[in-house]
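ESCALATION

Customer reports they have been waiting on this structure for their group meeting. Please prioritize. Original submission:
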Amino acid sequence: MASLSLLAPAPLTVRRRVQPTPSADLSRMTRYRGGTYSHTVGTVVFADGTSARTDLIRLNPNIEAYSLDFSGVAPTTPSRYRADTWAAVPHLRARAHEAEVAWILRNSYPAISTTALSDDLRAAGYAIGRRNITEHEAIAGTQAAIWYLTNGLQLDVRPLNVPTRITEDARAVRVEFDGDRQLAGYAAEVSTHHGAVLTLQKSHDARHWHDVAASTVTVPAGGGRITKSLGVGSTVAHHRHGHPAGGYRHYRLVIDGDATIAGLTFRLNESRLYRNAEPVVRLYDYLLTGARAARRAAMVPELETVDAGVDAGLIGPLRLVISDAAAVRASDGYDIVGADGATVTKPIRPHEEFFLRAAPQSRAATLTVEIPGNPRGFGGRVITGVARDEVADSYTPVALAVPVQLVVEFDLDWAVAGSAAKSDR
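Update from on-call: job pushed to the front of the queue and completed.
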């Protein structure tokens, strides 16, 4: 069959309707007073020093969700929730982050298992070790990433072994941490012509200094990379019953000789590198990085009709402006065909030409584009849960962790003059 790419131009108008369609029945949702699920409750620490408990919000029947407002209040009595849109949450209207939150919900727990999520982290280059991330860590990292987008709260991701202040002169390099630290060792690049002796000292107030036991390193002429391990307890400042031993806030590396110090780093005598659990920090960064990429990639499908014409019941060529292939169906009595005239049975690729076949006397039709709500996709839509009761305005709005299929309908009318496409968002 001859190509259908060349049809006589004709007036064609398009109107678009977008409708997120959840995979679960959300007609009746109730949130009860928050309980404690010991294996999924976690705690996150923010950059300003405040902290919060995290857990999935569970709505009856069997709907899991995340908080969309850090300042929201949990109900103390059963509260009915309704499914709604992103725009239904007042404080989110000024924050255009729906595509990012949608990607996070699709690409984290519980949409995918903790095993699959751990594999994704490793594949992305995040060092989380051999063990998989736990449920409470996955929930904590996911909730922290969402609160960053909806409330601007930044998770504390500063490594505890990195000083907040470094000063140096010819005789010493002084460092200050943002709290007491016990050190397990230090390392540095040393440049020296004649050799030097380095000694680490400790102090509570940066005025009275004491040598750290067995911390001295003799650097030969020419210098090089030095690494020094410290004895257990050598930087312990005090013990308090029932509390971990405290260290020192101030340290300095004293230089005896003509040496220059660069790249001074420290190892902690602690198991935790961050105030938050390391898997939580890694997941938080992974999700926000992916969410930013998703925002650039996500788009609401458009129907391109700039070259379209109408001839003997054929309308086209039409093209979908989308981020991935999507299933397309036409209203009753119409067929979707390719440029070769054959009926299209597979999903249509981005910018692929297709045509609508109708009876010659037809003047209007509807095309329905269905983008499945699969994990790892770019749906760009969030189904929110909002308290129905007027007295419950302060109750926490939630993002439902359910797959959301995006359905976009294009109403075509080739009886109305004008070729410009119109969009109703």
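Sent to customer with the following note: Residues 416-425 have pLDDT under 50 and may be disordered.
Escalation resolved.
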